[in-house]
Amino acid sequence: MFLAAVLAILTTMVMALIRAFKGPSAYDRMLAVNMVGTKTVLLIAVGGYVLAWPAFLDIALLYALVNFVSTVAVMRFFEYREPEEEAGRGDQA
Predict the structure, then answer these.
(1) Which residues of the chain register pLDDT less than 70?
(2) How far is CA 36 from CA 13, 14, 88, in A?
(3) How far is it, in rounded angstroms, from Cα 49 to Cα 2?
(4) Contact call for residues 11 and 27 (beta carbons, < 8 A)
């Protein structure tokens, strides 16, 4: 059962990585990278359960917090960067 769970998580991670490389916009790519981070948290939690190491749950929670904060930071960067790019395109037209 755990092998099926790990295979399902890895499959969705690969699909998210494909979306990250092919994404039409920066927001789609960032969402895909965030999904890979979330699936990594699931993979760590499942691995900790299988190995009977409860400390892995703490590591998974810490990774989830870092993933969340980094996602918000990168999205803020894109939020403040986009108007400058659009203004630059308007001057060239």
Answers:
(1) 82-93
(2) 5, 8, 32
(3) 9
(4) no
Quick check: 78 and 26 in contact, CB under 8 A?
yes
User: Which pLDDT belongs to residue 90?
Assistant: 54
Tokens at 15, concatenated? 């699909």
Its pTM surpasses 0.85: no
For the stretch 83-93, pLDDT in tens is: 555 555 555 55
**H-type alpha helices, the chain:** 2-22, 26-51, 55-92
Q: How far is CA 2 from CA 22, 40, 41, 48, 55, in A?
A: 30, 15, 15, 11, 19
Burial of 52 (0-12, 13-18, 19+ CB in 10 A): exposed
Whole-angstrom Cα distance, residue 55 to residue 59?
7
CA distance 16 to 39: 10
The tokens of 91 are what? 């001057």
